[in-house]
């Protein structure tokens, strides 16, 4: 602090103004190439530029002629499906080290937004529809990143839940919903991991741009949460620049000379005080001085290839087995592969979540190393094209001319020569675009549906089975066709080791242990946010309130194709009674014994829900996730006791004019296999 005080005393008001505006890339070189931006340096006072890069699924930089690559890790949504915070912390540690090795000071991740609707274009970058799961995963991710000395920037504060008109719409939301759902994870991650930075969102909340919303940044984040880091805008965000400074949104990214001159002029004419820009400058300097650049850390310029193995481990644990009618693991010699994605896998989403990675295996390559491939199907898909990629392209077309049009004769011939079939269905998803309910996007297009039905009929006629693999970043409609599949696997976007991870699951070398971090509704129209999500109105009502995702489906007794927390294994587990281990004024600790009673080794994620007492006009969810714990790898017959740590704050309810309170009454805790404990507070 003394060093920062000294620097501030020596800075001119022009320098203080300049440091609150990011250094513009226009006409200048940023190294490493492809980094998102840098802060304004003050060399005469020893204040360096700090380099920031995108990176929720790995460091995003340019390849520089094919000589420099990032590692593509499973996307955040996949990581949440592991329900394994230690593994997510390891992934964060890898990303932090990758950043350090390439000269990156701050990774612009993780994103802590709610997957409010299944069509959200950026859902792959967000952990879950559940705030508790987001908070635990976000905390683990940030701790991992910052263990390497690299800073993490949690984003996008707040309610950035759709991409359509993201810089124009206003989330019209009541305070309880904002506090309990959309700010909840940000609050916990700030308290538990002290991220270097927080990034505000493009959108407005109740008519005010988040980048200039003093009630959000100054009063809640710096005030109530006592945050000691730096707040920045998203790149090119709208909102009044002077109000941004007043709101203590410290840093505008990416900057330009006009923004800087605007602040200097405001100080000179007295509409903005030098004290106000000094507060922002202090926050920025405090963050800058924690970074690699300030400490003189020299980047190695090389990646640690052992991180690929950790990425594959996380990919394996993120793959969700949805259906298995005695098909998996595959115990056969020859399989036939269908769908263009077998040769053109989608390993991650596009935009800020994209990673320029080195060449990676196709699903076909990885499966060919474990099985013989049927010649008929292999020949048909030999030269299958890749979907067109580009923001202005129809990347998930309804009238598909790229997917191979499979004939009944070809499917019959493939079924004769193979023991089983794998059908791949893929989707592209990206920042800046939302999905649509139409065929080819949320629903299968005609070619995809024809392929699935044709393959299913041909193989089932010969008493052979069919597995469908969903290589997608968002849920898609499965209800109308899942009966054609004997096994259904939600692969998601599992990173550059997707193929190897999938092959090890299908072959039975690994046992699936993932659970859905989101709901897969029967139809996207079932989502409580659907109507407002698709509206052209730029004032978007959050009328579902706290009933997001599974909370809504359970409240309305609305069936999902697959519910939040669902996932199958190749083995079976038996869970004992819930027990209270510790109860103090600040926390509650429970335990449950998990035993592998199946025939294979495997891991099990145990989930704990809570039902809060009713309180007059404050509606409560039937139940909501409050804690979870994952076992180590258990051999058949082996058991392990898992623990659930619950802070008193996690049980609070927001009441108007009172804030967060612990309601008096009975709290019902529900563990695995419907084991209950009732506790009165």
Q: How many helical elements?
A: 20
Helix content: 25-40%
| SS-derived structural category | alpha/beta
Q: Globular, elongated, flat, extended or rod-shaped: what is the shape?
A: globular
- What is the radius of gyration? 25 Å
Strand content: 15-25%
Could you characterize what this model shows?
The protein contains 20 helices and 30 strands. The protein is α/β, with parallel strands linked by helices.
Q: Which key phrases capture this entry?
A:
globular; 681 residues; six-stranded mixed beta sheet; alpha/beta; 20 helices; 19% strand
Brief rundown of the structure:
With 681 residues, the protein is of the alpha/beta class.
Blueprint (SSEs and pairs):
Blueprint: H1 2-10, H2 13-19, E1 37-38, E2 51-54, H3 76-81, H4 85-101, E3 106-108, E4 111-114, E5 126-128, H5 131-146, E6 151-157, E7 170-172, H6 175-182, H7 184-193, E8 197-200, E9 204-205, E10 208-209, H8 214-224, E11 230-232, H9 241-246, H10 257-268, H11 274-288, H12 292-295, H13 306-318, E12 320-324, E13 334-338, H14 363-368, E14 372-373, H15 375-380, H16 408-417, E15 420-426, H17 446-461, E16 465-471, E17 487-490, H18 498-507, E18 520-521, H19 530-533, E19 539-541, H20 550-555, E20 560-562, E21 573-575, E22 579-583, E23 587-596, E24 605-611, E25 624-630, E26 639-647, E27 653-655, E28 659-661, E29 666-670, E30 676-680
Parallel strand pairs: 2-3, 3-6, 4-5, 6-8, 7-9, 7-19, 8-11, 13-14, 13-15, 15-16, 16-17
Antiparallel strand pairs: 1-2, 9-10, 12-17, 18-20, 21-23, 22-23, 23-26, 24-25, 24-29, 27-28, 29-30
Helix pairs in contact: 2-10, 2-11, 4-5, 4-13, 5-7, 13-18, 16-17
């Amino acid at each position: 602090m003394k060093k920062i005080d000294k620097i501030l005393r020596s800075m001119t008001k022009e320098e203080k103004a300049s440091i609150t505006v990011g250094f513009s890339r226009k006409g200048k070189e940023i190294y490493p190439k492809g980094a998102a931006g840098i802060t304004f340096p003050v060399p005469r006072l020893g204040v360096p530029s700090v380099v920031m890069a995108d990176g929720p699924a790995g460091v995003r930089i340019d390849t520089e002629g094919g000589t420099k690559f990032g590692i593509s890790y499973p996307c955040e949504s996949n990581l949440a499906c592991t329900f394994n915070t230690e593994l997510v912390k390891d992934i964060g540690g890898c990303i932090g080290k990758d950043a350090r090795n390439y000269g990156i000071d701050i990774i612009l991740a993780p994103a802590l937004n709610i997957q409010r609707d299944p069509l959200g274009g950026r859902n792959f970058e967000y952990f879950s529809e559940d705030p508790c799961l987001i908070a635990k995963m976000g905390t683990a991710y940030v701790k991992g990143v910052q263990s390497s000395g690299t800073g993490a920037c949690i984003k996008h504060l707040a309610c950035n839940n759709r991409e359509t008109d993201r810089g124009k719409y206003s989330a019209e939301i009541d305070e309880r919903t904002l506090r309990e759902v959309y700010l909840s994870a940000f609050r916990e991650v700030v308290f538990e991991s002290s991220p270097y930075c927080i990034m505000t969102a493009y959108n407005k909340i109740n008519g005010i741009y988040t980048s200039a919303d003093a009630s959000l940044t100054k009063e809640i984040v710096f005030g109530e949460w006592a945050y000691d880091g730096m707040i920045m805008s998203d790149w090119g965000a709208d909102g009044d620049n002077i109000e941004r400074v007043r709101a203590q949104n410290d840093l505008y990214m990416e900057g330009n000379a006009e923004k800087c001159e605007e602040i200097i002029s405001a100080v000179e004419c007295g509409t903005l005080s030098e004290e106000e820009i000094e507060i922002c400058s202090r926050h920025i300097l405090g963050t800058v001085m924690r970074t690699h650049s300030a400490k003189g850390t020299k980047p190695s310029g090389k990646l640690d290839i052992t991180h690929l193995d950790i990425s594959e481990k996380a990919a394996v644990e993120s793959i969700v087995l949805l259906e298995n009618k005695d098909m998996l693991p595959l115990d056969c010699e020859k399989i036939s592969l269908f769908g263009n994605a077998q040769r053109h896998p989608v390993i991650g989403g596009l935009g800020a979540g994209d990673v320029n990675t080195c060449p990676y295996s196709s699903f076909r390559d990885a499966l060919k190393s474990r099985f013989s491939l049927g010649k008929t199907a292999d020949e048909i898909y030999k030269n299958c094209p890749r979907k067109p990629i580009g923001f202005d392209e129809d990347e998930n077309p309804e009238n598909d001319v790229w997917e191979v049009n499979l004939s009944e004769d070809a499917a019959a011939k493939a079924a004769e020569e193979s023991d089983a079939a794998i059908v791949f269905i893929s989707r592209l998803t990206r920042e800046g675009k939302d999905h649509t309910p139409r065929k080819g996007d949320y629903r299968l297009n005609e070619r995809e549906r024809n392929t699935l039905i044709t393959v299913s009929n041909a193989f089932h006629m010969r008493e052979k089975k069919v597995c469908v693999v969903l290589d997608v970043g968002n849920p898609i409609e499965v209800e109308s066709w899942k009966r054609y599949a004997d096994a259904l696997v939600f692969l998601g976007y599992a990173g550059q080791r997707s193929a190897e991870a999938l092959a090890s699951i299908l072959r039975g070398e690994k046992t699936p242990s993932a659970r859905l971090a989101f709901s897969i509704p029967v139809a996207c129209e079932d989502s409580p946010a659907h109507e407002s999500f698709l509206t052209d109105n730029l004032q978007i009502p959050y009328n579902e309130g706290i009933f997001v995702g599974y909370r809504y489906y359970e409240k309305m007794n609305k069936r999902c194709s697959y519910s939040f927390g669902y996932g199958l294994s190749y083995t079976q587990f038996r869970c004992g009674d819930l027990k209270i281990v510790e109860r103090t004024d600040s926390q509650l600790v429970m335990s449950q014994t998990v035993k592998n009673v199946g025939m294979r080794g495997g891991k099990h994620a145990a989930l704990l829900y809570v039902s809060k007492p009713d309180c007059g006009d404050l509606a409560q969810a039937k139940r909501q996730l409050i804690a979870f714990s994952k076992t180590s790898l258990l051999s058949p017959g082996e058991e392990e006791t898992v623990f659930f740590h619950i802070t008193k704050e996690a049980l609070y309810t927001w009441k108007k004019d009172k804030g967060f309170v612990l309601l008096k009454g009975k709290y019902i805790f529900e563990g695995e296999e419907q084991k209950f404990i009732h506790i009165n507070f």
